[in-house]
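Lab notebook, bench 4. Still working through the backlog of constructs that have no structural model yet. Next entry is a single chain of 490 residues. Request: give me the structure tokens for it.
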Amino acid sequence: MVTRRSVLGGALAATGAGLLTAGGLTPLLTANPARATAGTPAAGAPKVTLPPPFTVRMPLPAVLSPISTLGGQDTYTVTIKETAREIIPGAQTKVLTYDGHFPGPVLRARSGRKVVIRHRNQLTMPVAVHLHGGNVSPDNDGGPMDTVAPGASRIYSYPNQQPAAGLWFHDHAHHMESEHVFRGLSGTYLLSDETERSLPLPAGQYEVPIALRDARFDDTGQLVYVMDDVFGRTTILANGRPTPYFEVAARKYRFRLLNSSNMRFFQLRLSDGGRITQIGTDGGLLERPFTTDTIGLSPAERADVVIDFSRYPVGTKIVLENTLGPGTPDQVGKVLRFDVVRTAPDPSRIPDVLRTLPPMAKATVERTVVLSMDEDGRQEPRGFMDGQVWDPRRIDQTITHGTSEIWTVTNTNKLVPHNFHMHLVQFRVLERNGAPVSPAEAGLKDTVRLFPGETVRLHATFDTYRGTYVYHCHLLDHSAMGMMANLRIR
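Model written out:
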């Protein structure tokens, strides 16, 4: 079993060429060097090294195909297994996968049409498959203790009774979730509906899912997992490849961005400062698009964006940069490069109005939640939700079915960033630090960032399923350390 096994640095550290931003995120957690020893190549074997930036092509994730579409539902079978895949050219890296896919696959679903998946666990460790952002019953939520044993199978049923959204799925077995996700157990779940399909947005080959994350490799090209290893995970992967390039036509593309990292925050921009149009977030389309030059993503957050490459002549190369540490610009500052290689017709456009969000019901209950963790340098730091380490037997919040509530969530740490994810519901962010939120947080959300000292107010309605669910920090190393709690809807 994975256990808490790291050292928490008690002081700020330098990141090299000014990768800190005004947002206040700083590299806060240090790895235990004794746990991070690199593997040694066999005698005569060359040391595996990362390729120069932009020499590897970014692949498109595999799309899962149902084994049946009968009975008004799409049925899938997926095998969870270890395999080896080429991440660094010339090396075979052991990864944990859904059906052997690294990066994780894409499952395309339709609102109102049921999806049923039989997962077969061929690992030697238990797993739990959580549909992040999904409105599902407790027995299909993939809770931390509701695991699938090695050699066993489990059927998950997703009714998809919610609007279009870019969801994702990942392992959630407690104390193992952070290592399992780090080693590859995550995938993209794109849910569409009639409203979205009626819009003239870029589609088909011009709608591209991109899963971003960081990684650490040893000298043999194997992944090195150390809990809280934010300094060591300084190789950025886009769709499972290090700093790749992606060929585009001189037209609009829709990119479905997912931060599938355990710990890393991204602040993304185009190297020429060019415009990016954001059209959606965790819970689907915004009401109106907005133009920005930067996209911020904490772990588990998603952004639905459109980039118009028609403003660039063929032959242009534009880098998607990350301006946030820890790590140096050479390590983490370049995410991928868009190479404009051809012209193409473009009938797509971005409407001024994308959809209408339902009005928020009157909130009748207010709650406060405090996120914190030890930051005094102890060998086994703990994560806390309202001062308590997660206990699966304890109910921390009891909610009356059908009510709307306002939750005020605060990160009381002085050094450590967190974020907040609630299972079952999509919420609205009302305020950040007492001020109105930016357009990027104005839609439906299921994960929200909290830099040290920050407070957000959230509005959530609990009118679908009854039962017990968790809420937690989605820096998965933190939730594995106990920063999680239970809510029961009755």
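Notes after review: The chain is about 5% helix and 40% strand. The CA atoms of residues 111 and 311 lie 35 Å apart. Flag for follow-up if needed.
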